Design the sequence.
């Protein structure tokens, strides 16, 4: 095949070049008042002659997009009036697969101007934002070469030493050398699944469960076995045990501490029994503990990892619920799968960003992390309690709400005729975002449920949002 | 099944607790002079009685590990003399699968005290380390809430706007909205492969090629079709074309700009032809451009993306070769696979770390990036040239070295009897790390080749390292 000439012959060359520059302006890559690339640059970049470049700029000038300034080249004149018809990325539709729903939930948050009760994200007004950013600034100023270099897996040693100490509070004695830092718990979860499963494998999960988990399972072509979960005590071990007897299960994911979305707390004996039950069959357990440091009571519970003597428990957590989601710092203790997880980390993202790791290590060692946790726990406790009362007051008769003992999530079950997806759409139109129940199961159960996040101070604005939600739900009942 | 009691009965309980604390000390989680958790805390965390905790501390004291201080609890006394026998993570062996080799290469770098010519990593002494860290500090101080919050995909808009401008220098008009930021090019590559392939698919790659790519293919259970690559002009299109006629190929990965490891530069007509050839068969092309901004000449070449009219080219790059590997900021322009890549990003790491993104955006907009690139290009050019001469001088007769026109990598082909893995082991023992040729092919070809990185200023130390390598290689020839 001879080298082909993919350039279209329908539009004159200078117009094609002008269209491209117009698109840069329309897209905001070149802004009003900014100098455009020079004629020579355009010529070289687009592989056209100088005279074609000149023609292109005459065309752009005639469209009112650029203006020449004496001896300094062309400048962008004004915001574009007409969008060019070159295709941009299509928008994520509001319906469709689980994944798209998941993305649209984020779109709502990113868009801003919305009371975001949908994402399980703490408010930056509650987080120790200023202090943490100051610590990062401090680290950046003094890190030198270390700050710009890879912090290859297993990641920052000072951070791992701090994490090791925190893990002991949950009863697990874990050496810094057994820990691998990750870009949040999301990466940790995926690394674990890549280490312990292959496509087609069956993974037992709670139901309802965090949609991010279901989405990772989908992405890795794993099959989810949804195990009923008690809103108070978590994963139903009797059901799990029955399932293990009847079918192949290759891994299990549990959220024993203030699960997402139910806020369930597994009793210690249940954790111990779960670890033993899986050990008997050599099934790895992935423990997601992202809310573990946020009990309403004075002390944190033991982790499943603390009962693990065979290295079958892969423990995942992050600082996204307690310090800074945007720092993207989490960790995994992969037990006997250490090598596989470390290799997966290398191919996944190579390393975790160095300076955010160091900033978080500083906060843990000298930022008063425990003091801060105590204060934020009481804020969440208060907010969860007020939100609960408001929901029971404003929502249709027959609505029930969970009573979590930690974290900041509420699971709301409305009368059967309420459709959460419809409620989601209508609420978003009124500037309130929620997480519809259908997201929390691959079988699209929980159509009359929603998850409400209480990751912020209680406020009149929030009370108003609950009133809005309540009245929209009531309309569906009548 | 009744709840089991996995705790061992052979060792007394207090000793088990003491062993755990001893391990924390040995692992460095508790350091000399530091206060240990209190008796009460230990009791609660380990689920033992107060008297058992006391016994454990008596035991620890008798082992000389802790000492009580009046009214302030126990403190770690001295570095541990004996390592406890609880299992830590096993070490990565020096031989074995490709992945393990890959990891061991990094171990050498992480270990320090080694002249690291093995990794394709720029030296922090060359990078604009101080300025960049200062910009990050500045961003961290003023970012407020934004700094700690998720920057959900597609990632920071200010950064994407800057990237859009840079992409134009390579001839590709790409809107900020078509770009997704990633945790480096490693994540970008993996997201692209996840978007366009499924396990078992065949991916055409250069050979020799960057081992990270081969490793990602292995991880995703993809089959690599290794296409011979010319050290000057890159991927052999005649061979690729023949292969496309004879077998199913699901995707292609090319490094048209100063490829890793060969340093080859694809001519513009070849890029155009490659894009057209793949378009004809609707095969996606993943373009890895991490060295694209580092030509030795005055201007950068066009990208394959600039010839892409059908959205089949997925363009990947990062700032890891030009600014700061440790910031973990890269990007992808996924063309028609935008949605799939964006969803993959959510399940992969949720988001890219916010503040590093903003710091890099600042450097691009007001840090004098182009000026900086000009100066670093001349450093790399000089270093590559000196390193080349030194290799030809010191290595066995018959050794050949590539003549790249950009980047900072050299590919050294030694006489056939030299074994690069053996050279690697011997060189490492003498404090010099290289990348053995066997890593760059799944078929373990290139046994007599090594890749040498020139990502640092030329120095006497480096000259010494080349002398060491040369004499080790010569010993294998005789």
Sequence:
């Amino acid at each position: 095949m001879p080298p082909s000439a993919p350039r279209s012959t329908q539009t004159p060359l200078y117009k094609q070049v002008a269209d491209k520059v117009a698109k840069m302006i329309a897209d905001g890559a070149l802004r009003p008042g900014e100098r455009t690339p020079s004629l020579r640059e355009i010529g070289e970049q687009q592989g056209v002659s100088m005279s074609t470049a000149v023609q292109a700029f005459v065309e752009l000038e005639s469209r009112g997009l650029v203006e020449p300034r004496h001896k300094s080249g062309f400048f962008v004149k004004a915001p574009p009036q007409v969008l060019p018809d070159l295709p941009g990325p299509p928008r994520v539709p509001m319906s469709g697969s689980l994944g798209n729903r998941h993305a649209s939930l984020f779109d709502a948050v990113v868009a801003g101007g919305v009371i975001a009760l949908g994402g399980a994200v703490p408010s930056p007004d509650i987080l120790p934002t200023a202090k943490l950013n100051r610590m990062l600034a401090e680290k950046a100023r003094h890190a030198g070469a270390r700050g710009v270099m890879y912090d290859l897996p297993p990641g920052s040693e000072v951070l791992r030493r701090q994490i090791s100490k925190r893990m002991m509070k949950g009863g697990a004695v874990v050496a810094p050398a057994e820990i691998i830092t990750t870009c949040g718990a999301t990466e940790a979860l995926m690394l674990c699944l890549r280490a312990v499963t292959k496509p087609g494998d069956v993974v037992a999960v709670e139901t309802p469960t965090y949609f991010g988990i279901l989405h990772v399972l989908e992405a890795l072509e794993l099959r989810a076995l949804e195990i009923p979960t008690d809103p108070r005590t978590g994963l139903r071990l009797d059901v799990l045990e029955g399932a293990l007897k009847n079918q192949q299960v290759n891994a299990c994911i549990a959220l024993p501490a203030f699960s997402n979305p139910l806020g369930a707390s597994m009793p210690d004996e249940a954790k111990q029994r779960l670890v033993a039950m899986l050990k008997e069959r050599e099934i790895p357990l992935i423990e997601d503990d992202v809310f573990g440091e946020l009990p309403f009571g004075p002390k944190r519970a033991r982790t499943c990892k603390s009962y693990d003597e065979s290295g079958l428990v892969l423990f995942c957590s992050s600082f996204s619920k307690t310090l800074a989601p945007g720092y993207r710092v989490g960790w995994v203790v992969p037990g006997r799968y250490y090598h596989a997880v470390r290799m997966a980390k290398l191919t996944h993202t190579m390393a975790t960003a160095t300076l955010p790791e160091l900033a978080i290590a500083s906060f843990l060692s000298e930022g008063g992390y425990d003091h801060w946790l105590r204060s934020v726990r009481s804020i969440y406790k208060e907010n969860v309690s007020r939100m609960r009362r408001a929901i029971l007051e404003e929502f249709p008769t027959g609505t029930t709400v969970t009573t979590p003992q930690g974290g900041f999530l509420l699971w709301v079950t409305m009368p059967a005729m309420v459709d959460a997806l419809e409620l989601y759409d209508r609420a978003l139109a009124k500037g309130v975002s929620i997480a519809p129940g259908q997201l929390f199961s691959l079988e699209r159960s929980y159509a009359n449920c929603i998850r409400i996040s209480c990751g912020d101070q209680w406020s009149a604005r929030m009370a108003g949002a609950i009133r809005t939600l309540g009245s929209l739900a009531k309309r569906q009942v009548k």
